[in-house]
Structure formats: C-alpha cells, structure tokens
C-alpha cells in the first residue's frame, strides 16, 4: 500500500514527531509498503514528499519552514495519491482530532483513534471524567478555569482545599508536560495555576502521589483490543517533566517493568477499559501511577498518538511480546483500512435508507 507518513506539525512536539517519522517510515518499508513522507512545518505548511524525505535522511531536528500561505500547500497531501495515512503528528493540531477530521473529510483511511476519541483523550479533564464514569481509578483532583480565576483567585482555589500537599498543576489540554508544576506549599498554588493558564483555559490541580509511573500499549479494533507488556518510567527529577523528556538524559525506561503478576494483569485490564471509555481504536499508550505502598493503581492519562522513536515505549513494549516494528506498523495500517471500509458500509446503509424514504 501507498502510505503517507504525516509528521512534524505546529505543536511543541514537532522535533519528537520528526524522530518518530524516521522509525515509522523504516517499519513500513520493511513491511513492504510504499512509505511517502509528508511533512508539516512549524507554521502549518505542508511540504512535498521529496522535501520531507530530505529532512528524514539528514540529522535535521525540524522541517524547513517555507514562505507563503500555508493553506495553499495542502495540495501536497491531495497530490500524494495515498491508500492510507499514518499520522505521527504529536500534540495539538495532530493528536487532538484536527488531522483525523481532515482525513475523514478526504475519505482517507488513517492510523489511530478517530476524531472524537482523539479530541477527548487530548483533554485531560474530559477523559478523566469518562474514566471515572467507567469506574476506573484516578487521583483526586479539582478544576480551575480562567474565568473563575480572573473573577476571584481565592474562590477559584477553594475547590482545591480538600487536596493535601503536594499538588500537581497542569493545563487540561497540552502535551510534553508543558505548563506543569509540582507545588509543595499551598502559598505557591496561585502562581502555579497562573502559569498553567498560559497554555489552556482550564487547569487541573491533582493530589500529588508518591508512585511509580507505568505504561501499557494498546492495539486493535474496537471490541478486540489487546494490551502489551508493561513499561516503567523512572524520572531523573521529581517528576517526568519537559526537561526529562527532551533536554536531559536522566530518566530511565524499564521494559518490562518489574511488577507482581496480579498488578500487571490489572494494569492491562484497566488499559483496555480506558481505551473503551473514550471510544478509541487503533493504538494508544495508557499511563498509570502504581502506589506501591498501598498496592493501588491510578490512571493518569491516555495518549492516542504515542511516540514512535527508536526508544519510545509504544513500539518497544510490543516488541517485547513478539510484535516487531514492521509487523506493528503493518497491523496499524490494516486496522485503519478495515475501519474505513466499515465506515463506508455504514454510510452506504444510511444513504440507502434515505433513498428508500423518497
């Protein structure tokens, strides 16, 4: 199949996306697909396959930014004559349903979750509420909105009074731990919330927990989801922040994670339930806290477009259970095509019904 690998994008995760694309292109080509690189520059302009390919073949960290109107460059996607797309644009404008919606409009099969699941998963508050409705454990939290904070800081923060220190403050929508702060003193909470409001209109204030950070990869069609081996992140600092992820090399990745068998089994069940809760399919990485002293799990968040670099957890965890990178990429593309075919059948049924009423 001719598969477009869409990468780069406008978010702060642009550089990671470029690295992920190199891995995905290699995996697809090894699996026998015709992988077509399609880059999106940091200003939103689409780049021709040959330009995107040069970036992947080089040591460049980011795609070149062309001059002119970005909207006019969409022709590069339209001219690529793709059978399917493998979006690997992390963060906003790529992981949040925007790019998925474009593919839907073009009737182009695409890897990963659909529009609704992608959008919900990107919003930590919305996804957390769905997890709670599904009976999944989450850490205690409160919500502060920009409007409430601007009207009365003290009243807005009163919702956090029941949460014991330390507190973890983060924008509801965002990635790469941008805008996140660990608050050890209640007196510092207002400043941390003010900082997080630079990145979103809604802020989550969570009870800080002393826990191990563990992750599970999920793969499959709706109703037939599978969970991988389990990995663990050991942060270099107090938590796995932006510097730990991209600027330093202090964090450790343990795969498989050393966990009791019963805890591992429960993690896998929870990961599949989390994917079901948002209506997801295709792929996701589900992140948990394991409060070892209490032998208790808490679901942190779900990432519907996880990293695909050579050391990323998602491909690494599937490799541990006998699914090498080329097979993983191939399965994801075939799942995308099957889902698109299912949607076309539903659309045909709807059109037939409407026609029969005339």
Commentary on this structure:
- The protein has 358 residues and is of the alpha+beta class.
- It folds into three domains: 2-112, Rossmann fold, CATH 3.40.50; 140-207, ATP-grasp fold, A domain (Dna Ligase, domain 1), CATH 3.30.1490; 210-331, D-amino Acid Aminotransferase, Chain A, domain 1 (2-Layer Sandwich), CATH 3.30.470.20.
- It has helices at residues 14-30, 49-57, 75-78, 98-105, 115-122, 124-133, 146-151, 153-157, 189-196, 242-247, 261-277, 313-320, 325-356, and strands spanning 2-8, 34-40, 84-87, 141-145, 167-171, 181-183, 202-207, 212-220, 226-234, 252-254, 282-291, 296-303.
Q: What secondary-structure arrangement, pairings included, does this model have?
A:
Layout: E1 2-8, H1 14-30, E2 34-40, H2 49-57, H3 75-78, E3 84-87, H4 98-105, H5 115-122, H6 124-133, E4 141-145, H7 146-151, H8 153-157, E5 167-171, E6 181-183, H9 189-196, E7 202-207, E8 212-220, E9 226-234, H10 242-247, E10 252-254, H11 261-277, E11 282-291, E12 296-303, H12 313-320, H13 325-356
Parallel strand pairs: 1-2, 1-3
Antiparallel strand pairs: 4-7, 5-6, 5-7, 8-9, 8-11, 9-10, 11-12
Helix pairs in contact: 1-13
Summarize the structure.
This protein has 358 residues and is an alpha+beta fold. The chain has helices spanning 14-30, 49-57, 75-78, 98-105, 115-122, 124-133, 146-151, 153-157, 189-196, 242-247, 261-277, 313-320, 325-356, and strands at residues 2-8, 34-40, 84-87, 141-145, 167-171, 181-183, 202-207, 212-220, 226-234, 252-254, 282-291, 296-303.
